[in-house]
Every structure is written in structure tokens, then in C-alpha cells.
């Protein structure tokens, strides 16, 4: 949405500049405006991903009802955990994105489906390894009962996290961590 708005602004400025500036100068200004537009769009995408991660961590810590000391100890571990989980899910996510249209329209071939299943099972194994790796780290920061609850809260869908914060979830809001 933000990108569309910025593109409209770029197009309007470009149109105005065409009538006010010489053609060779116009090319330079157009390039500068385009670079600025791309920088703003890429910054907004990164900020959204960071916001989702921050929301997920805040939601988890809040629902675990941790004291300040436990929350401070757990926070950096959760940041690293979510980053490692994102890496573990990447291969499947990339392949799923490649076949997104086929999945949506029901035109997925058997070969593509087999590749998706293989990637999914491989990623599931990587995710399980990350969970096992972080278990002792979580247990060092909080009691085992809270660790058990943590795995539920940290994997809640973004729509549930947003709803808990009073934010209406949009249809385009991805439930995956990005």
C-alpha cells in the first residue's frame, strides 16, 4: 500500500518536472527520485518485518507473565531464536513462493508437490533442531513450565497476536515470521 502511494507521488513529481526542466536535467532528477522511492519502500518492508518480530516477542513475554529479570534474560534469546527459525523455514518458504500461483489455482503438478513435500519435511527437521537447541537456553532463563507455554505463544499466528493488541488483522497480513 505504501509503495503504491509513493509510486503515485513519484509519477506526479515526474510529470510536473517534465514541464519545468530541460530534458537532460530531467533524467538526472528522475533517477534521484527513483532511488529515493526505492530506498523508502525497502525501508518500510524491513521495518514491518522488525515490527512483527517485536510484536511476537512482546506478546510471548506478556502472556508468560514474567517478572522483569526473567523478561530481560529471555528477550535476547527470543530474538536469536526467531532469526534461527526464519533461516530453518527459508528453503520451504522460497519454494512455496515459487509455486504460489499453482497452489492458489489448483494447478500444482505432482513433481512440484513432491518437491514441496520434501522441502517441508526437511524444514520441519531443521525447525525441530532449532527448538531442541534453544530448549536449554530457555530453561536457563525461565522455569520449564513457562518454557512449555513459550513454545505455544511464540508460534501463535500474527492475526491472534494483533487481536490481543487490539489491532484488526488485514487479509494480507502474513502469519509467518518475516
Can you put this structure into words, describing what you see?
The protein has 178 residues and is an all-alpha fold. The protein contains seven helices and no strands. The protein has helices at 2-20, 23-64, 68-98, 100-105, 110-141, 144-154, 158-164. The longest helix has 42 residues, at 23-64. It starts with a helix and ends in a 14-residue tail after the last helix.
How are the SSEs placed, and which strands pair?
Elements: H1 2-20, H2 23-64, H3 68-98, H4 100-105, H5 110-141, H6 144-154, H7 158-164
Q: Uncertain spans, ≥5 residues at pLDDT below 50?
A: none
- Helical region count? 7
Helix fraction bin: over 70%
Q: What's the mean pLDDT score?
A: 82
Supply Rg. Answer: 22 Å
Number of strands: 0
| Distance, first to last CA | 18 Å
Strand content: under 5%
The outline comes out as extended
Q: How many strands, what sense, and barrel or not for the largest sheet?
A: none
SS content category = mainly alpha
Written as H for each helix and E for each strand, in order along the chain, the element string is HHHHHHH
Amino acid at each position: 500500500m505504501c509503495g503504491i502511494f509513493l509510486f503515485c507521488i513519484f509519477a506526479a513529481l515526474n510529470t510536473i518536472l517534465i514541464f519545468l526542466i530541460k530534458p537532460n536535467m530531467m533524467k538526472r532528477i528522475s533517477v534521484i527520485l527513483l532511488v529515493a522511492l526505492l530506498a523508502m519502500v525497502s525501508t518500510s518492508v524491513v521495518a514491518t518485518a522488525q515490527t512483527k518480530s517485536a510484536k511476537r516477542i512482546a506478546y510471548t513475554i506478556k502472556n508468560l507473565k514474567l517478572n522483569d529479570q526473567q523478561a530481560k534474560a529471555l528477550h535476547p534469546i527470543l530474538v536469536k531464536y526467531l532469526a534461527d527459525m526464519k533461516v530453518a523455514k527459508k528453503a520451504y518458504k522460497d519454494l512455496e513462493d515459487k509455486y504460489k500461483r499453482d497452489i492458489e489455482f489448483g494447478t500444482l503438478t505432482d513433481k512440484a508437490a513432491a518437491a514441496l513435500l520434501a522441502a517441508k519435511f526437511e524444514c520441519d527437521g531443521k525447525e525441530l533442531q532449532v527448538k531442541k537447541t534453544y530448549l536449554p537456553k530457555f530453561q536457563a532463563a525461565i522455569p520449564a513450565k513457562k518454557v512449555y507455554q513459550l513454545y505455544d505463544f511464540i508460534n501463535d499466528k500474527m492475526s491472534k497476536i494483533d487481536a490481543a493488541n487490539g489491532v484488526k488483522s488485514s487479509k494480507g497480513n502474513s502469519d509467518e515470521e518475516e
